[in-house]
């Protein structure tokens, strides 16, 4: 069931993640967050 549902979740979240401003990622990195912490 999870294997069937995950592609639909990814498809619905992908446009939102692409629209996010890169400034937030850069600010988090400057404050010392690693890659995993920036993503979540």
Describe what this molecule looks like in 3D.
- There is one protein chain.
- The protein has helices at 2-19, 22-30, 35-39.
- 80% of the residues lie in helices and 0% in strands.
- The protein has 40 residues and is mainly α.
- It is built from three helices and no strands.
- The relative contact order is 0.10.
- The longest helix has 18 residues, at 2-19.
- It has one domain (2-39).
Summary?
The protein is 80% helix and 0% strand. The protein is mostly helical. The model has no long low-confidence stretch (mean pLDDT 87).
Question: Which value, in Å, is the CA radius of gyration?
Answer: 13 Å
| Unreliable spans | none
Mean pLDDT, nearest integer?
Answer: 87
- Counting H and I runs of at least 4 residues, what is the number of helices? 3
Number of domains: 1
Alpha-beta content class: mainly alpha
